[in-house]
Amino acid sequence: MPEMEEDIIRHYYCSICNETHEVKLSNNLSKAHSRFPFPYIFLHGDLRNILTTLYIDNNFEIRSTDVYKLTDEDLFSKTQVIMITSTLIEEIERLREENMKLTDKLKTLNKRFKEE
Ligand SMILES: [Zn+2]
């Protein structure tokens, strides 16, 4: 029975806009992570200047939220840069590992295919 890979809709309260926003999460998002909750970072707002970090658990529930408004004069603080960079590095490392695993699987499958 094929399952529809639909986006998951969640809501979070944003203290900067002072309202509840809707966020669409890809169904594949949790499969891509092994540690929970994981940080999900994006920009929102009309000017895309609100840095948003949602901490999402394996049931796609938002455990906590960090919002930070970026202004023109306001460059990222050192702590933010470290936080964002380390998250991205972790993500790259995870993708690299996943890529290696998939490459191995593909090799095995190709080998099996040739043997048959
Ligand atoms: Zn907002």
Description:
Helices cover 33% and strands 31% of the residues. The chain is of the alpha+beta class and 116 residues long. It has two domains: 1-74, no CATH class; 75-116. The strands form two sheets. The chain has a three-stranded antiparallel β-sheet with strand order 3-4-5, with no helix packed on it. The two termini are 28 Å apart. The protein binds zinc ion. Zinc ion is lined by residues 14, 16-17, 21, 44-45, 50.
In terms of topology, how is this protein built?
Elements (H helix, E strand, L loop, with lengths): L7 E7 L4 E7 L12 E7 L5 E7 L5 E8 L8 H38 L1
Antiparallel strand pairs: 1-2, 3-4, 4-5
The structure holds zinc ion (ZN).
Zinc ion binds next to loops.
Characterize this entry briefly.
This protein is α+β, with helices and mostly antiparallel strands and 116 residues long. It is 33% helix and 31% strand. A 3-stranded antiparallel sheet has the order 3-4-5, with no helix packed on it.
C-alpha Rg, in Å? 18 Å
Q: What's the arrangement of strands in the largest beta sheet?
A: 3-4-5
Small molecules in complex: zinc ion
Mean pLDDT: 85
Molecular shape: elongated
Query: Strand count, sense and closure of the main sheet?
Result: 3 strands, antiparallel
| Structural class by SSE content | alpha+beta
Helix count?
A: 1
* Low-confidence runs: none
Report the span from N to C terminus.
Answer: 28 Å
Order of helices and strands: EEEEEH
Number of strands: 5
Fraction of residues in helices? 25-40%
The fraction of residues in strands falls at 25-35%
In total, the number of domains comes to 2
